[in-house]
Q: What sequence folds into this?
């Protein structure tokens, strides 16, 4: 499903360079649930961006769901991001003028899903993250945890083969973080998608059977699935 082979990502930085990733290899099977931890600056977000087709490696190969991301052109990457991928960010990125329901529905409508089918799908996703009762609220009427659960529903609406999350509980209090963790556990146990979460939180990291630790652009250790 995910196959990363000896990937480096080097950024130019002033007169020198930063090796954000330095020979990273990683294999995940379909339906795996992995968390990535490590100190700030160790390359976690860089790796996630590469898996999301948002950036290219300096060297090495990345295959996700049969697509060679390292050599894919912009058109294939756009298609990949729209059809194969879901992403959840630390700061939710909901559209403030749209309700919960409209936010979750938007990516489906952009893909041309017929509105009746999209509506049914949105209902299912809102139920999954326990947000049905808030469907007609606007983002400013929600708690941080509710906003993040909405963002998770939105990322899953299109049925992504791979869901990436970068510090999804980083901006939440403990109670809301726990509710968001419940959502990810449910998604993982139902094998809805391959799931990769970058996190500072031990509570989040421990949810996953595959735990990857990074340091200085390298993978330090990983538990078996
Ligand atoms: N666009 C960029 N340009 C230059 N250096 C960058 C860029 N993005 C990240 N870096 C550097 O790459 C390293 C890894 O960053 P990042 O992947 O964001 O780490 P993490 O998410 O683990 O905190 C850091 O040293 C960071 O400063
Ligand atoms: Mg980061």
A:
């Amino acid at each position: 499903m995910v196959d990363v082979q000896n990937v480096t990502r080097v950024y130019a930085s002033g007169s020198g360079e930063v090796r954000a990733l330095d020979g990273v290899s990683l294999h995940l099977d379909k339906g795996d649930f992995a968390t990535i931890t490590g100190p700030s600056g160790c390359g976690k977000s860089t790796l996630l961006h590469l898996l999301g087709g948002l950036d290219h490696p300096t060297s090495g190969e990345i295959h996700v769901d049969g697509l060679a991301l390292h050599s894919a052109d912009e058109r294939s990457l756009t298609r990949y991001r729209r059809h194969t991928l879901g992403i959840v960010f630390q700061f939710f990125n909901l559209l403030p003028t749209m309700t919960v329901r409209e936010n979750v529905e938007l990516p489906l409508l952009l893909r041309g899903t017929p509105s009746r089918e999209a509506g049914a799908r949105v209902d299912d996703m809102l139920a999954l993250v326990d947000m049905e009762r808030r469907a007609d609220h606007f983002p400013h009427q929600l708690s941080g945890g509710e906003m993040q659960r909405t963002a998770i529903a939105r990322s899953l609406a299109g049925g992504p083969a791979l869901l990436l999350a970068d510090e999804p509980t980083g901006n939440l209090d403990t109670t809301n973080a726990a509710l968001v963790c419940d959502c990810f556990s449910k998604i993982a146990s139902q094998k809805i998608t391959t799931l990769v979460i970058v996190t500072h939180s031990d509570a989040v990291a421990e949810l996953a059977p595959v735990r990857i630790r990074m340091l200085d652009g390298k993978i330090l250790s990983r538990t078996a699935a």
Q: What stands out?
A: The domain at 29-56+74-222 is CATH 3.40.50.300 (Rossmann fold). The first helix runs from residue 44 to 51. The chain has one domain: 29-56+74-222.
